[in-house]
Amino acid sequence: MAKTIFLPFPMFALLVIFGAILSVNSFNITADELNFLALKSYISHDPHHLVTNWSTSTSVCNWIGVTCGSRHHRVIALNLSNMDLTGIIPSQLGNLSFLAWLDIHNNNFHGSLPIELTNLHRLKYLNFNNNSFNGEVPSWFGYFPKLQSLSLSDNYFNGVVPSILGSVPSSIFNIFPLQ
């Protein structure tokens, strides 16, 4: 004779809620993983094989250069500085909605910057120094509400600094030697 297992309603409800919480967390990590795998596919040269551990077999929070927040386990920082990487920045990077720190200086990323980066509303720090980005300095850099530090030097940007980023004080031209 088969036994039936009786779960009281509160226990059943608790299991359903716990399962829902786990699935939401898994979805978020998976979304971040997909965005980073897109970035990985746009990296054309990785001489030190640093992003080879960017794989779905390990948590995105354990990937080289990635930091996750302890509360939501979402990616809050990406630091790929000084890794000798070559590639372009894909639009998917703008989907990392919890990202607050983005540092890719001293690499060879090139091309123009995708406007989708404006979706990074939590961004506080952005360092794109010493790459090969080109085109005009995007005016949308002024639309990051929490941005505290923006570094774009040693790229191939042209044109004028968009007024939304602020003005350059005339005293800057008194610096000697100005190169």
Describe this structure in words.
The protein is an alpha/beta fold. The protein has one domain: Alpha-Beta Horseshoe (Leucine-rich repeat, LRR (right-handed beta-alpha superhelix)), CATH 3.80.10.10. It is built from one helix and ten strands. The strands form two sheets. A five-stranded mixed β-sheet has the order 1-4-6-8-10. β2 (66-68) and β3 (75-79) form a beta hairpin. The protein is globular, with a radius of gyration of 22 Å. It starts with 8 loop residues before the first helix and ends in a 21-residue tail after the last strand. The model is unreliable at 18-27 (pLDDT under 50).
Question: Poorly predicted ranges (pLDDT <50, ≥5 residues)?
Answer: 18-27
How many helical stretches?
1
Reported CATH architecture: Alpha-Beta Horseshoe
- Percent strand: 15-25%
Q: How many DSSP-defined strands?
A: 10
- The end-to-end distance, rounded to whole angstroms, is 90 Å
By secondary-structure content and strand pairing, the structural class works out as alpha/beta
CATH topology: Leucine-rich repeat, LRR (right-handed beta-alpha superhelix)
| Mean pLDDT reading | 83
The CATH C-level name is Alpha Beta
Oligomeric nature of the chains: single chain
**Spatial arrangement of strands, main beta sheet:** 1-4-6-8-10
- Name given to the CATH homologous superfamily: Ribonuclease Inhibitor
What is the string of helix and strand elements?
HEEEEEEEEEE
Please give the radius of gyration in angstroms.
Answer: 22 Å
Fraction in helix: 10-25%
Query: How would you characterize the largest beta sheet?
Result: 5 strands, mixed
Shape: globular
Taken together, the total number of domains comes to 1
